């Protein structure tokens, strides 16, 4: 079995290392964070992912998986480091470049080098290959085999999808694609498709851009429905009865490292042509402000209002907060003077987000409004009594359309059905208003929305 070195032990790198180790490969996981390395060498994990802890524990105990802060000689090198965006939304590939440079002292003829990090089109050809060429290698003539193989997994189902999803292997050369494909066939039950690196780079970006654009359509529908006094959720349900229509649900925005980031990599390379992609990004980026402004309006007539935020992760049943719109909403609301905010998040470690987290009952205690920002399974199963017994006024703003409560004592506003939101005195009948005849005007500084999470 091959010796594999996986560089970057985050949400993709660690599960990838664990899956190869479970298959019998000798795997070295590399990360610049010594705490992550120490945690892994104890057989523990630093991220929440179903089943991962068990696989890692067994792999470490068997000696098939270990971690270090520097690479070592291997047959295969897999680069799975983050590629965030700069303030101008261009791709930051510094970590990928550093990872490629870090393996130069250990490379041998015939080694396989695979980049899994999401990168702009042309990065393998114009950025990564030249690193090896400058060091004296010739990937064009296959003295090392260089390929791009993007991850295509869903948080919460990563271990299943790493094995069962189709994998695209884009080789710098045809031979490189063939060699890399054989590595993935050690663990992948789905199809392994070989192509060139540019096509693989673009396919990865378009997979997530497709979803981002379609989510933007749903979010724009929510805004239109508010303006036209229509229930967007009902509209979506009816439209989706058509056999060729599948409109998504609106929400507080788009998070995660993929959908919220990848479209910008295309815009960066073809700004004049990527008009629809840019507009979709603007719509989805505007949603945290849309939510925050309606939260502000809902409590604007109250004296000393308290809002309970439920969920910070960008995705249900996950601790992944990367580019989370929930955190953007939190930070926008923190700008409002006189607003007390409590936060409950069952999956996220408090130190990870640097936000004070409390238990659910404490978050809801004496709150005037509960805002659901993440569709955790726990929230879908909440009973009306938890709101009635703990809140000052049991009013919910459900931005994920996931609350399943049918009780007239609980008032629920959904992000796609905000009709009647102007008549809020009835919702807060037991609280003293401080304003009368308020119109839907906001004080949120919208200019800060796009940069609030930087």
TrEMBL record:
Give the UniProt keywords, A-Z: NAD, Oxidoreductase
Q: Which residues form the UDP-glucose/GDP-mannose dehydrogenase C-terminal domain?
A: 308-405
**Which top-level group of life is the source organism from?**
Bacteria
A Pfam family per the record: UDPG_MGDP_dh
Family the UniProt entry places it in:
Belongs to the UDP-glucose/GDP-mannose dehydrogenase family.
The protein in question is named Nucleotide sugar dehydrogenase
Which organism was this protein described from? Answer: Scopulibacillus cellulosilyticus
């Amino acid at each position: 079995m091959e010796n594999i070195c996986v560089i970057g032990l985050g949400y993709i790198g660690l599960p990838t290392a664990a899956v190869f180790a479970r298959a019998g490969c000798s795997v070295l996981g590399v990360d610049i964070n010594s705490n992550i390395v120490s945690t892994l060498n104890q057989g523990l994990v630093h991220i929440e992912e179903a089943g991962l802890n068990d696989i890692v524990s067994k792999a470490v105990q068997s000696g098939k998986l270990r971690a270090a802060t520097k690479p070592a000689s291997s047959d295969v090198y897999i680069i799975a480091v983050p590629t965030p965006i700069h303030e101008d939304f261009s791709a930051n590939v510094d970590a990928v470049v550093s990872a490629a440079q870090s393996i130069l002292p250990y490379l041998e003829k015939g080694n396989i080098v695979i980049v899994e990090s999401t990168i702009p089109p042309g990065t393998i050809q114009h950025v990564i290959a030249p690193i090896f060429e400058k060091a004296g290698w010739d990937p064009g003539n296959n003295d090392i085999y260089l390929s791009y193989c993007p991850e295509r997994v869903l948080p919460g189902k990563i271990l299943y999808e790493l094995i069962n999803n189709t994998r695209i292997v884009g080789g710098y050369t045809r031979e490189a694609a063939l060699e890399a494909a054989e590595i993935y066939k050690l663990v992948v039950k789905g199809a392994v498709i070989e192509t060139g690196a540019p096509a693989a780079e673009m396919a990865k970006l378009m997979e997530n851009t497709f979803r981002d654009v379609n989510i933007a359509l749903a979010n724009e529908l929510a805004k239109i429905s508010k303006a036209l006094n229509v229930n967007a959720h009902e509209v979506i349900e009816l439209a989706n009865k058509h056999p060729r229509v599948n409109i998504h649900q609106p929400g507080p925005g788009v998070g995660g490292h993929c959908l919220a980031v990848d479209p910008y990599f295309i815009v960066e390379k073809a700004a004049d042509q990527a008009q629809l992609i840019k507009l979709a990004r603007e719509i989805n980026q505007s949603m945290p402000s849309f939510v925050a402004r309606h939260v502000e309006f809902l409590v604007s007539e109250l004296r000393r209002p308290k809002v309970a935020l439920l969920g910070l992760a960008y995705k249900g049943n996950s601790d992944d907060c990367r580019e989370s719109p929930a955190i953007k909403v939190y930070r926008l609301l923190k700008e409002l003077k006189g607003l007390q905010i409590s936060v409950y998040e069952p999956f996220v470690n408090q130190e990870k987000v640097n936000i004070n987290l409390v238990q659910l009952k404490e978050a809801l205690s004496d709150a005037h409004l509960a805002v659901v920002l993440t569709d955790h399974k726990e929230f879908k199963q909440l009973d009306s009594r938890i709101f009635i017994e703990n809140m000052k006024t049991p009013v919910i703003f459900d931005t994920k359309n996931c609350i399943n409560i049918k009780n007239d004592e609980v008032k629920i506003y959904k992000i796609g059905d905000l009709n009647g939101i102007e008549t809020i005195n009835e919702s807060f009948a037991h609280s003293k208003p401080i304003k009368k005849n308020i119109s839907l005007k906001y004080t949120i500084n919208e200019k800060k929305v796009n940069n609030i999470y930087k």
